[in-house]
Amino acid sequence: MAPSIRLSPAGRSLFDEPLAIAVQGLGPRQQVTLRTSLRDETGELFQASAHYQAGDDGELDLARSPALPGGSFSGLEPMGLLWALQPQKPFWRLVKRDVQSPFLLQLEVFEGHGERPGRLLAQAQHERAFLRDGVRRVPVREGRIRATLFLPPGDGPFPGIIDLYGAGGGLPEYRACLLANHGFAVLALAFYSYEDLPKGMKEFHLEYFEEAVNYMLHHTQVKGPGIGLLGHSKGGDLCVSMASFLKGITATALINGSVANVGAVLRYKDITIPPLGINPKRIKVGESGIADIIDVLNSPLEGPDQQSFIPLEKAECCFLFIVGQDDHNWKSEFFAVEGSKRLQAHGKEKPEIVCYPGAGHYIEPPFFPMCAASMHLLFGKPVLWGGEPKAHCEAQIDAWQQIQAFFHKHLTGKPSGTCSKL
After folding, report:
1. Which residues does the UniProt record annotate as the domain Acyl-CoA thioester hydrolase/bile acid-CoA amino acid N-acetyltransferase (predicted)?
2. What is the DSSP string of 37-84?
3. Which domain holds residue 93?
4. Position 209 in a domain
5. Are residues 142 and 125 in the same domain?
């Protein structure tokens, strides 16, 4: 019997779902190298490989067989060949630009554990998709809003969420559509550097975000009375500002967000919140040429920078802070703790704070490979994002459950039956 790769699900799975990988038809205790390859939409190649030894029966099941030292990872890691994918081009991050097409994953089995791949024994292809069958993708161009709405299958109405990414700009849709697969109506909202929106990050007007909130509150497919906000990085402090000043927000989840306004002036009616001051002299550049910017921001607790602290005590919602304790973009844990102190000092409910040791800045949906460093649009050079690959991967899986459980609880009143694994 010739060696073959057995995958479950067989031909196609959703990107945030586990994929079971096994090889059959090998020789007893045969040594092999497994390699995965994936190209993003720009054609850049990501690869991972691991060394294995088949059982006495010639079978190899990644759920039961530990990877041996010498590859991209070692130990019992059933999904290691996905989370350990690394770009062949330095400082390149895996993102999904068109959620309507899947990523194509190539799997290969080679003979032996040599420096160079041995003879090819088996290969397979698998689609990692972003849209579940029946999820509707609706481009939204109403008033000033530039967004995409994802609606789950069925009649609805569904709990509604607005999803904001960070300083990269544009309109990333992949987190929003993966969340919609789990029963939420999710609006991926662009806020700069997209179509006719402002090109740069100089100032933001909260009235724009208010339009998006009202769009969701009045949508027939969105279950009221309030909606949720989900923001990462710069998107996080924008969500804190929305929750603090706008009506109709029930739950706000931040992934490595800030409770101070960062990077641009924020305006709403007659209110102006200046951005937190920075000191570029605090950038540390290592021998690799990668900048560590963790100490660049001033403290929002001192001097004039206190004006940048967003008055989150005005919010009428519950908060969830997802914190990577090895975040090198900024001090996410400090922001979460100070936000919690401020809420409680004003008699508000203590927020949920979930901390992940070994997780960096880009806590993405499950099985996205960790990006340790990439180009920073505002600094114009590669910066360190932090994280240790295995711990970061585990954090992404748990955080994804935490975020869904939080929104289920506060937007539907029903717990989703998930509990923290960490």
Report:
1. 16-142
2. EEE-TT--EEEEEEEEE--TTS-EETTTSPBBTTSS--BS-TTHHHHT
3. 4-129
4. yes
5. no
Q: In degrees rounded to 5, what are phi and psi of residue 252?
A: -130, 120
Read off the tokens for 195: 């179509």
Residue 416 in domain: no
Answer yes or no: are the C-beta atoms of 217 and 227 closer than 8 Å. Answer: yes
Which CATH number do you get for residue 243? 3.40.50.1820
pLDDT at 419: 40
Exposure pattern of 243-257 as b/e (b: 16+ CB <10 Å)?
bbbbebbbbbbbbbb
Query: Active-site positions?
Result: 233, 327, 361
DSSP H or E stretch at residue 200: none
Strand partners, 352: 320
Residue 288: band (very low, low, confident or very high) from pLDDT cuts 50, 70, 90: confident
Residue 420: inside a domain, yes or no?
Answer: no
Looking at residue 99, which CATH number applies to its domain? 2.60.40.2240
Helices 234-245 & 206-217 angle (0-180, nearest 10): 70
Q: How would you classify the pairing of strands 249-255 and 318-324?
A: parallel
**Closest Cα to residue 209, out of 262, 268, 261?**
268
Average pLDDT over residues 83-103: 97
